[in-house]
Design a protein that fits this description.
The relative contact order is 0.14. The chain has 10 helices and 26 strands. The radius of gyration is 45 Å and the shape is elongated. It has 4 domains: about 100 residues, Transcription Regulator spoIIAA; about 120 residues, no CATH class; about 80 residues, no CATH class; about 110 residues, Beta Barrel (Elongation Factor Tu (Ef-tu), domain 3), CATH 2.40.30. The strands form 7 sheets. Strands 9, 11, 12, 16, 17, 18 and 19 form a 7-stranded antiparallel sheet that branches. Strands 6, 7, 22, 23 and 24 form a 5-stranded mixed sheet that branches. The protein has a 4-stranded parallel sheet with strand order 1-2-3-4. The protein is of the alpha+beta class. The longest helix is centred in the middle third of the chain and has 24 residues.
Length: about 500
């Protein structure tokens, strides 16, 4: 029998482990009235259920009315403080409920000479008996148990999610890691095409309204002229905001718009310049409206030049696309600690904004691709743990994790929720759970041959080996603490 004092702060798991780790099948729990677990009727009933599975005979001592009531309702044996715990002289009970030993007075009598030989013989036998007891008390037993193996097939749906950090075998969720990879590859290629070109220069200008607080609409093709007389036209209708007052001063309204040269030619590839609107010439608006460019106009050309052909662009895009995808896959190689499923590797590729297109002028053209991957990965060791817990909870079997192989079926990846759903398919080796405590309780003090016979009769055990020490010991020790059971799963 084992008495365990439970502290006020100990929780459900602490109490369960204390009883489970107790070497005795008979346990008395001393519960303080302030312990929160025994104030919860449902938790008390769960404890009772777990203790029965462990084959533990548990009794309760408590001064708390609510704890006493819940324990009684759950079916625990109740021992009141005034009752004697047991009649046996168990060392644990004596330590908590000690009684002063009675000092028996021993009368000393004179021993006659004819009894001396008898006393010497008695002392000699006692000494031998004492030596035997001491030698026996240091005996040990180590038992190697080889359980039967069985095959159990599983086909269970699970979800891999980055929203959790722990395995949840009840709801079928395994933690995962979200992975996002983006790689950009840009390369220049030679243009192989040639053609006669009449191309107009293009650029951007900022138009200012320093004339009125009222906005001014300007239609597409409105002309803007440089001081050198070169004319450019805007390509869409815009509205120039009116002036605004800031800090006591009027600030011109402004808008940016693209402009194109009125004619083709390289002379229109001008440096940043100022512009006026010829259409307002002779009116007050001519001085009030003007424009400026901050970058050089480009693209003006007349004559033969190299151009990027359709074949040039197609070949270049294929090469750049493949290289961008390979760059993403190189990043995946670094995830060696995780399981990456090919079914989730949907790599998206798009052209960058600075890529050229068919017909663009120049000896060289540029193609850029951006490759993006969003997926979720997981650790296979978490999968093995999930399967082990799933089988244990549903079948009360222990899974042989070594060498366990799993197939992943019906894989579906939800990019929006960033969750991976699939089925785990495997044939796992299992063994029945072996109650070491029960076995030890049954074989203590038995002869080695009797213990072997007992172990052979257990359905969950295929074979067992008993090793006793010292060499002259022929029986299992009486002390449970000197008996060790080692379950060997090969």
């Amino acid at each position: 029998m084992k008495i365990i004092n439970i502290a006020s702060s100990e929780n459900f798991k602490d109490i369960l482990e204390a009883v489970q780790n107790s070497p005795s099948d008979e346990v008395i729990l001393v519960i303080p009235k302030s312990n929160r677990v025994f104030k919860n009727k449902n938790k008390v009933e769960q404890l009772k259920s777990h203790f029965e599975k462990l084959s533990k005979d548990v009794s309760i001592i408590s001064s708390g009315g609510e704890a006493f009531k819940n324990a009684s309702s759950a079916g625990f044996n109740i021992i009141r403080r005034s009752e004697k715990v047991a009649r046996k002289k168990d060392s644990d009970i004596v330590s908590l409920y000690s009684e002063k030993p009675q000092n028996d007075s021993i009368s000393v009598r004179k021993i006659s000479n004819w009894m001396k030989n008898f006393i010497f013989i008695f002392l000699g036998i006692s000494l031998i008996f004492f030596i035997v007891i001491v030698l026996t008390s240091i005996s040990k037993a180590r038992i190697m148990v080889f359980p039967y193996k069985n095959i159990f097939s599983i086909n269970v749906p699970v979800i891999i999610s980055d929203k959790i950090t722990e395995i949840d075998e009840v709801y079928g969720i395994i933690p995962g890691e979200s992975v996002q990879i983006e790689k950009v590859v840009s390369k220049n290629f030679s243009s192989t095409g040639e053609k006669d070109v009449f191309q107009k220069a293009k650029g951007k200008i900022i138009i200012y309204n320093n004339f009125s607080v009222l906005p001014q609409a300007l239609v597409a093709t409105t002309r803007f002229q440089t001081p050198e007389g070169l004319v450019f036209r805007i390509i869409k209708t815009i509205t120039v905001p009116g002036t605004v007052k800031e800090g006591g001063k009027l600030k011109p309204g402004e808008v940016e718009v693209e402009a194109v040269a009125d004619r083709a030619g390289e002379e229109y590839n001008i440096e940043p310049s100022e512009f006026k609107i010829p259409g307002f010439l002779g009116t007050p608006k001519y001085q009030g409206f003007y424009a400026e460019s901050s970058e050089k106009f480009l693209g003006g050309f007349v004559g033969k030049t190299n151009v990027a052909t359709k074949e040039d662009i197609k070949r270049a895009e294929s090469l750049v696309r493949e290289e961008a995808i390979n760059e993403v896959r190189k990043e995946l190689v670094l995830l060696s600690n995780f399981k990456v499923l090919n079914e989730t590797l949907d790599i998206e590729v798009e052209k960058t904004l600075d890529s050229n297109k068919t017909g663009d002028l120049g000896n060289e053209f540029k193609i850029g691709n951006r490759a993006k991957l969003k997926t979720i990965v997981f650790k296979e060791e978490d999968v093995v743990k999930f399967i082990s817990r799933y089988v244990t909870n549903s079948q009360n079997l222990k899974v042989v994790e070594k060498g366990l192989k799993v197939d992943y079926k019906e894989i579906q990846f939800d990019k929006e929720d960033n969750e991976l759903s699939l089925k785990l398919v495997s044939s796992v080796q299992t063994v029945k759970n072996i109650d070491n405590g029960k076995i030890i309780s049954e074989i203590i003090s038995r002869k080695s041959s009797e213990a072997e016979a007992y172990l052979r009769d257990l359905k969950e055990i295929e074979s067992a080996q008993i090793f006793l020490s010292p060499f002259w010991v022929r029986s299992i020790p009486k002390n449970k603490d000197r008996v060790e059971i080692q379950v060997v799963i090969e």
